[in-house]
Amino acid sequence: MSNLLYNNSNIYLFVAVFMLFCGIAGLLYRRTLIGMLVSMELIMNGAGLNIVAINRFIVPENPYGLAFTLIIMGIAAAESAIALSIIIIIAKRYQHIEGGDMKELKY
Amino acid sequence: MSIGESIFLFAVAVTMAGALTAVFASSIVYAMLGLITAMFGVAGLYIYLNSAFLAMMQILIYVGAISILIAFAIMLLGQYSRKSHDFKAVGKLLSALVIALVSVVMFIRFVLTNLPGKTAPNFLMTTKDVGRAFTDTLILPFELISLLLVVAIIGAVMLSLNSRGDK
């Protein structure tokens, strides 16, 4: 029972770390802001998986990890809406959505 | 290897392949599809972590809301993502190599040397416990999330309507 593959914590933590590094590399590699936003969502998914795995294997007597992951999902939804509206403004202002040329805050 | 372990490894492989596609696909639409694939894989991992409610919320919120939002952004702003001057394949290769090396090092260091890991015999937290925590101890963050969503909606509408763009 306890030596099944899905009953130990390391593989979940490894997948979470892999998603974190993929997200960081996407933030470095992508040029458009939408690609960076996709990478941010990957990082948030990895963080949620990490928190739920820790809550399942290390502190299994309280549900706060699950609650915090739900809070992360709500924050990710709000962040995506705000970020996409800001990207729309940037597209109107600069006529492109690449992050390299944005050097001023006035619009 | 039992059938449960096979399905678990399939979920892990789907998650990792989706993450790699979301980062290294050349088209942004393929990147979005890779992100959706990774989210479905994470939902499967949540089911293996004995929290099915969280898996359903993952599919509803991430796949059903955030991915559709990103799809709308791609459809609205596809004309503005100008044909970028060709990517340096060196940078792509270097970042892929860094991801692969760091992940392999961490895999060997933390997973393979300690494969049984930390096992937990039972996890008795159900949806009832999560709801009780939200309405008992975490009532202030719960209400603040609703306030945050309202502020985000109003802010997104104001930003999109009142922007003095060059249109």
Characterization of the model:
- The complex is a heterodimer of chains A (107) and B (167).
- With 107 residues, chain A is mostly helical.
- Chain A has helices at 10-29, 33-57, 64-94.
- In chain A, helix 1 (10-29) runs antiparallel to helix 2 (33-57) and helix 2 (33-57) runs antiparallel to helix 3.
- Chain B starts with a helix and ends in a 6-residue tail after the last helix.
- Chain B is mainly alpha-helical and 167 residues long.
Could you give a quick summary of the protein structure above?
With 107 residues, chain A is mostly helical.
Reconstruct the topology from this structure:
The complex is a heterodimer of chains A (107) and B (167).
Chain A: H1 10-29, H2 33-57, H3 64-94
Helix pairs in contact in A: 1-2, 2-3
Chain B: H1 3-24, H2 28-48, H3 52-77, H4 89-111, H5 127-136, H6 139-161
Helix pairs in contact in B: 1-2, 2-3
Characterize the biggest β-sheet of chain A: none
Quote the distance from N terminus to C terminus of chain B.
Answer: 61 Å
Percentage of helical residues of chain B?
over 70%
**Mind describing the biggest β-sheet of chain B?**
none
Oligomer: heterodimer
Q: Radius of gyration of chain B over alpha carbons?
A: 21 Å
- Count of distinct strands of chain B: 0
- Tally of DSSP helical segments of chain B: 6
Indicate the overall shape of chain B.
flat
Order of helices and strands of chain A: HHH
List keywords for this structure.
heterodimer, A: about 110 residues, mainly alpha, B: about 170 residues, 6 helices, about 75% helix, flat
